[in-house]
Design brief:
3 helices, two-stranded parallel sheet, single chain, five-stranded mixed β-sheet, alpha/beta
Length: about 220
Amino acid sequence: MSERIEALARNVDAHLEGRARRLPSLADELALEVEPAALLAACRLLRDTPGLQFDTLIDVCGVDYLDYGRDQWRTNSATRSGFSRGVDRNAPHAAAEPGRFAVVYHLLSVALNQRVRVSVRCAGGDDPIVDSVVGVWAAANWFEREAFDLFGILFNGHPDLRRILTDYGFIGYPFRKDFPLIGNVEVRYDAEKGRVVYEPVSIEPRTLVPRVIRGDTLDG
């Protein structure tokens, strides 16, 4: 960790008084995790404390930790860190346990030119919930609606929590890792009915798997 980031981390630790813990990060970044009950108090301290002054919310995003660190492939001839490692969905996992979902806040202090990333795990399982920070940073309004729309994360105290990207009748949350890649419905225009209709998707689901080169198939 760079000297500047280390100084910022000490300043944050001193003012948050145990409300946050550091997460692993790059040398020029500071990442924190707070407990859900301490989120609003920690955010206000980060915004209002001289020497911190994180007055600008850059982004809010959701995270789904379903199957985090798990895959069904055991091989030495392909990377284990690529996209879609073919997880066996039938194996037991903690899909509905609290902590599956998290919300991450990216903060900027314009006056001091410093940044911090704050993460909080959501309470609840299939209906994750966390306090809204709209009262701290008004810019969170649309960001939180986006996280609700795509991940199904509920924000307690949000003034207008409606979908913002998907259609009015959309079912499910497309950024959840158990949402099918092919979706649940398909849309087409029905000439006889004279309108757009929604129907169950007609293509077969598939799983993206890594291409493995077997050593016993190579010449020599």
